[in-house]
Design goal:
alpha/beta, five-stranded antiparallel beta sheet, about 270 residues, Rossmann fold
C-alpha cells in the first residue's frame, strides 16, 4: 500500500527519497527504511520523532533546489531531542516518475513466504493482519469463491482441489499455516507437508490451528500413516503466542502474525 501511494504521487510530482543508509547503536529504524518527501506531505517513515522532522526539512530544501552531500549523519542525542543514543546516516535522492519502476524493484521489502490453507474467518483475519507485514502470502482454499475481490498486494489467491495438491510446489522456506474448513482437509495438508519435509526439509514452520485435543487425534492418525514422532514434532499445534488469549478471529490472527514475526527474528537476527 505504501509503495502504491508513493508511485501514484510520484507520477504527478517529484520527491526526495530519504533512506536509512547505515546506523550504529540504538536507532528507530533499520537500514533500508525509507520515506518519500513531497512538496506537501510524505509517504513512508524512517522512524518518526525529531529525526524525521529534520529529514523532511532537509528534503524540502533539496526539492527547492538546494544542494548538499548525498548522505548526512545524525546523532540521536540531546541535540535532536531523542535519547536512543545511536547514529543514523540518511541518504537524500531527488527522484521523479521516470524512476518509478526501478524504485519499486529497489525498495520492495524482502518477504518471507507464507502458505495459508483456509479462507474462513481466521484465515481472512490473518490475511488482513499480514497485509502490511514483510510476508508473501500464498492463500489456498478448495473453494474458489471464498477469496475477496481485491486482496492485499502481498497476497496471491489460489484455488486447489484437492487442497493438499498445492503443497509440492510451495516456495522453499514457506511457513505453512493450516486452517481449512474441514478437519479432513487439515489432516491431508499436514500429511502432505510432512512428506515434503521428509523429501526436502525446506518448510521451516508447519502450524495447525486447533486445540491440544485436536492435535492428539491428528498425531494418532498421522502415526497410522507412517510418520515418526520426530517428524510429527515438526508440527506446531496450537498456533499463536501462548500468552495471548481469546477465540475471536482477529485475536487469533494477531497472535499468529506475532508468532511468524518472532520466527523471522530467530531466523534472520538483526546485525
Amino acid at each position: 500500500m505504501t509503495m502504491n501511494l508513493f508511485t501514484a504521487r510520484l507520477a504527478a510530482e517529484d520527491a526526495v527519497l530519504v533512506t536509512v543508509d547505515a546506523f550504529q547503536g540504538s536507532v528507530p529504524r533499520e537500514s533500508g527504511a525509507w520515506m518519500a518527501v513531497f512538496g506537501h506531505g510524505f509517504v513512508g517513515t524512517i522512524g518518526g520523532g525529531h529525526l524525521e522532522l529534520k529529514a523532511i526539512e532537509e528534503a524540502r530544501l533539496r526539492l527547492a533546489g538546494a544542494g548538499g552531500d548525498p548522505v548526512l549523519r545524525f546523532a540521536l542525542g540531546p541535540s535532536l531531542g531523542q535519547c536512543c543514543g545511536g547514529v543514523v546516516q540518511l541518504r537524500f535522492e531527488k527522484v521523479d516518475a521516470s524512476q518509478a519502476s526501478a524504485l519499486v524493484r529497489r525498495l520492495a521489502p524482502q518477504r518471507i513466504p507464507v502458505a495459508l490453507f483456509g479462507g474462513g474467518h481466521v484465515g481472512r483475519a490473518l490475511v488482513a493482519a499480514l497485509g502490511p507485514l514483510p510476508f508473501a502470502v500464498r492463500w489456498i482454499d478448495s473453494r474458489d469463491e471464498i477469496f475477496p475481490a481485491m486482496p492485499a498486494d502481498n497476497v496471491g489467491c489460489e484455488h486447489s482441489d484437492p487442497v493438499q495438491s498445492a503443497v509440492p510446489d510451495l516456495a522453499a522456506g514457506s511457513h505453512v499455516l493450516v486452517m481449512s474448513f474441514s478437519h479432513a482437509e487439515d489432516l491431508d495438508v499436514v500429511a502432505a507437508c510432512l512428506l515434503r519435509q521428509r523429501q526436502h526439509a525446506d518448510l521451516p514452520f508447519i502450524g495447525l490451528i486447533g486445540s491440544k485435543t485436536k492435535w492428539a487425534t491428528f498425531r494418532h492418525r498421522l502415526e497410522e500413516r507412517g510418520f515418526s514422532r520426530q517428524e510429527l514434532a515438526r508440527v506446531t499445534c496450537p498456533i499463536g503466542l501462548a500468552g495471548i488469549k481469546g477465540k475471536q478471529p482477529e485475536v487469533i490472527a494477531v497472535s499468529v502474525a506475532a508468532q511468524l514475526l518472532q520466527l523471522r527474528s530467530w531466523e534472520a537476527p538483526e546485525k
